[in-house]
Amino acid sequence: MPRSVNHVASRRRRKKILKRVRGYWGRRKNVWTVAKNAYEKALQYAYRDRRNKKRDFRKLWITRINAAARQHGMSYSEFMGKLKKANINLNRKVLADLAMNHPKAFEAIVEKLKQVS
User: Fold this and answer.
1) Per-residue DSSP letter, 72
2) What are the CA-CA distances from residue 76 to residues 38, 43, 80 (Å)?
3) Cβ–Cβ under 8 Å, residues 46 and 78
4) Predicted local distance difference test score (pLDDT) of residue 117
5) Which end of the chain is more exposed for a tag (fewer CB within 10 A), N or C?
């Protein structure tokens, strides 16, 4: 009796991955083993970088807040410490947005912090 192989399922599984790697360069888009390895590696990078993105944005926000605070004669750590002491609950994302797009509002926060302590 001949060996029974489920070609329908195998082909469907391969086509699913080959469809997802369609935009890749070279053999990564049309050779099964190369495409499978490239796709699995891409999933690993995507998983890792979803977490790294959060770190990168936090670094960016801190840099922007620091630059804006220094324009008003205050360091980042001093600014954040006074912010906590004054009980102003604004997160870094909002503060960075104010520093970049609404400098008058950021300046008002700095002036309030200078009065508090």
Assistant:
1) T
2) 42, 37, 6
3) no
4) 61
5) N
* Ordered domains of the chain (ranges, CATH): 8-116 (1.10.1900.20)
Average pLDDT of span 78-94: 94
Cα separation of 35 and 15, whole Å?
11
| Nearest-angstrom CA–CA distance, 58 and 95 | 11
Structure tokens at 86: 């004054």
Q: Which two tokens stand for residue 63?
A: 């840099």
Sign, CA dihedral 62-67-71-73, equals: positive
Determine which of 2-6, 54-58, 102-106 has the lowest per-residue pLDDT on average.
2-6
Angle at 84 between CA 82 and CA 86, to 5 degrees: 65
Residue 6, amino acid: N
